[in-house]
Amino acid sequence: MDNDLLLPPSRRSASTSRRRLVIGSAIAGVSAALGFSHLTAEARQPKSQSHNANDAKILNNALYYEHQAIWAYGVAAGKLSDTNVGQAVKALALRNQADHMAHRDKLAEVVRKLGANPVKAEKSYDLSYYIQRGEGNLDSDVNIAKLALALETDAAIAYTGEIARLKNPDLITAGASIGADEAAHATAIRAAFVSLGVQIEYVPASFVSTSTRSMWVLKV
Fold it and tell me: Rounded CA gap, 169 and 150, in Å?
């Protein structure tokens, strides 16, 4: 899809579109701070070794995908064009990436407090699953945004399922705030498409789940 096809029919200036994209990206940061202080504090409370091992494993799985998201946004940012659309998408991508870095740092801290070693970032990650399914690509500004949307949607779904398996109720509450942030990222990306004239809903379903996933992602 050509970037020009995303321009709205109204005579909206490029600078206005960029401002709306940046404002929309602020949505993604609102819930990032929620629960983070509790996430660390509650990890200090003594729990059984089995509970700590269980929770550390789950949080390490989450940490793996935070590493993946940080890497993906870094790669994508280098492939975006210098057009107004490309730079607006880049601003949103870097804002989302900053949240993922905050998630990474806090999850790693909690895993250590639970007595385990945080999983380390890999040099690269395989995104072929998304590309082969037509849920984004790295070949254009628009497809990069769609790829980010698919990744953020899956992150929100994963947190919903995995966080519920934690043994420490306080970690469940705090971890859920990260899942909410992933859903906010997906909403912000969809808002970016709306600001560029694409006729879609900001929030296409009442839930972010496997059953509603197809409503959230956008095909190439």
Answer: 29
